[in-house]
Structure prediction request, 478 residues.
Amino acid sequence: MGCGSSSPQQAVPPPGGGGATPPAPGGGGQSGQGGAYPANNANASRARGSDIAANNGVDAELERARAEDEGKIKMLLLGAGESGKSTIFKQMRLLYNSAERTDDDLRMYGVVARSNIVVAVRKLCAHLRNLGLEEELDRESRDAEGESGGGGHSGMSVRQAYDELMAYLVDNTANAAGGMDVKCGTVGTTSQDPSFSIKYPPLDDDLNTGKKDWVGQSPRAGLAANNDAKLFLAHHESIRILWQVNIHFFYGWGLLPCVRFALLESCWFCITMSHENIGIGDDGDSMWDGYLIIGEYLDDVSRIASPDYKPTVQDVLIARVRTTQVVMEKYRIDGIDFEVYDVGGQRSERRKWIDCFDSVTAVIFVAALSEYDQYLAEAKRTNRMVEALELFRSVCNNRAFSNTSIMLFLNKKDIFTEKIMYSDIAAQRPFCDYAGPTKDFDHGVLYFIQKFKDCLIDDEFNDSFIHNLKRSGFLGAD
Ligand SMILES: Nc1nc2c(ncn2[C@@H]2O[C@H](COP(=O)(O)OP(=O)(O)OP(=O)(O)O)[C@@H](O)[C@H]2O)c(=O)[nH]1
Ligand SMILES: [Mg+2]
Prediction:
């Protein structure tokens, strides 16, 4: 999504974090070495005395830290990109940290939610066009509008909404600038009405009310996300209109056939081909996660567009921000101190992992079950599940974790359930040895569990360490 390194949690400093800190006065290793301050004997012995006192202080401090460390549980969330680590991290925070998120955090997530919607809608519109479905969109939406009585209070048709979104979100053929009236309708067919103009809102003001937008901008969300959030505010009505005829897709009804087809195709597209081909840049995220955003955010566009909008707990949970820093949260659960670390999973992020490999009590390895037929954002020919297995192998067999418990969390079960209905496991080259029945959840899960077990050199992996996560309560193992 390209929102930059905007995690709201505590960022972890590099190892030996005090490296850049100036030496404490009197505590430096150079005193008494005939350095900058020559001392007489009395001074020298006083200096030695203070050295000893300082050393004792340091020793006591180290001892205290060691004792503290001994009772502390340090947990790492590891796994490939987009496997769901940060979502679990956020879920843990919900369970164990009662502190409210700061307004600064919420503003960041507000920007991210809005930009997530734009990214998903951008992909959807681009695929509708790439698949030559514009005519169908016209026809089907006219039928649907006939039944529902039109596009809502703006009077815009679905096709006009689509054309506006194509122009502003996909093609950038209509460039918006703060506070200027701009024309729309440079692409497409039906919205080339020159009277069709929209006002691009100045940053913090709602288009219609002029009211200050609570979310505004968030430097922590990164430039791209802020720009997309601005686009969202300018075009949320079109997004709503395009979506309203598709409401409740997730519950199995109401989606225009062409939009449903584009959604499914776009998922296949991301699975089987490179994002580059669709010419809208590669945010590195799969359309399947766009699915979730489409399913959960898009029904709520008006709320999210409101100037009073403050992200809810659920909005924060599903907001997708690629992790680019190691972040840590501390909890105290039943009198035991926990430190939980979240890391970025994409290949370029993994070199930062080593910074937190010291004295780890437990690793939670997160793998998305649904990724068996998807390819990496950062290496388009590598199957995501194969990558997860390789990564798991290297984590389990890493000497740094020889005394560490490793738990495997199998995530995105909801997507897996839906996907196996039409994406055969055995049809994927790396998993052509799958001999179970098609469309069978249990056999599919057992097959992948065995694949993970096969990664272990010794066979000590205990089944109780394997968890399937529920979609709605991510941490509930079943
Ligand atoms: N449908 C569904 N989506 C999920 C689930 N878990 C996570 N997601 C979505 O998957 C996307 C990626 O999740 P993240 O938690 O950001 O993944 P990550 O492992 O932290 O990714 P990196 O930070 O890039 O390493 C987000 O859009 C989540 O909302 C799940 O169980 N089901
Ligand atoms: Mg993350």
User: Anything to note?
Assistant: The chain has a mean pLDDT of 72. The beta strands are 10-11, 73-78, 181-183, 197-199, 327-333, 336-342, 362-368, 405-411, 466-468.
